[in-house]
Amino acid sequence: MPTPSKRIKVMLVDDHPLVRSAVRQALTAPDIEPVGEAASAEEAMRLAAELRPDIMLVDIALPGASGVQLVRELAPRLPGTRFVMLTVSTTDEDVMTAIEFGASGYLTKDLTPEALQRAVRGAYAGDLAMPRRMAARLVRRLAERATRTPAGHDPLSSHGLSVREREVLRLLSEGLTDREIAGALTISTRTVETHVSSLLHKLGARNRVEAAQHYRGER
């Protein structure tokens, strides 16, 4: 926890002004100081480098790049900042992706001001800022992934692709759009976009066509 002379610097990333205003009000506390706001991932990238906040509260649904993509880009650059998603989505896939890309917590917007303050203090202290039920689901999903053994040898595993990324790549290689992939896997389109961005990076592919060729070439 912060010392009496130290306040937890919090930056908020959300494209809705009313939400930002409500969160700012909810963070009114002697040991917490809202230091900045951004309405998009692009704006947040610029501001966070200047402000170096202790905590960033980030919505998943942002115009342009998603909040998860923002965390993926910023987390390696700001090791002293803890990223906590603050969103309406409760899907396991969004939670998993956010944590995989560097988030230190995942909160929903229906929590009380007191709970938000406790979560901010906990994240600052190094705790996982996440409701217990959601954390339990996350642990189960991680355990299932760890014990899942792919049938036969998978050359794509050498690229470090996750199980979900391989699923997205397979559907992508079949010519499906992001919306169609989202429907097939029962995840959001933004989550598909995040997976596509990640697998392109891991495969060293410049675009979806190259990624599909890579997939077919290793089959």
Characterization of this structure:
This protein has 219 residues and is of the alpha/beta class. It folds into two domains: 8-139, Rossmann fold (3-Layer(aba) Sandwich); 150-217, Orthogonal Bundle (Arc Repressor Mutant, subunit A), CATH 1.10.10.10. It has helices at residues 17-26, 41-51, 67-74, 92-100, 113-124, 132-147, 163-173, 178-185, 189-203, 208-217, and strands at 8-13, 32-38, 55-58, 82-87, 103-108. A five-stranded parallel beta sheet has the order 2-1-3-4-5, with helices on both faces. Helix 7 packs across helix 9 and helix 7 (163-173) packs across helix 10.
Give a short summary of the structure.
The protein has 219 residues and is α/β, with parallel strands linked by helices. It has helices at 17-26, 41-51, 67-74, 92-100, 113-124, 132-147, 163-173, 178-185, 189-203, 208-217, and strands at 8-13, 32-38, 55-58, 82-87, 103-108.
Number of strands: 5
Distance between the termini: 52 Å
How confident overall, as mean pLDDT? 86
Please give the radius of gyration in angstroms: 18 Å
- Say which CATH homologous superfamily of the largest domain is assigned: Response regulator
Helix-residue proportion: 40-55%
Strand order, largest beta sheet = 2-1-3-4-5
Q: Could you say what the CATH topology of the largest domain is called?
A: Rossmann fold
Low-confidence stretches: none
Instruction: Please tell me the CATH architecture of the largest domain by its name.
Output: 3-Layer(aba) Sandwich
The sequence of SSEs as H and E is: EHEHEHEHEHHHHHH
Number of continuous helical runs: 10
Can you summarize the main beta sheet? 5 strands, parallel
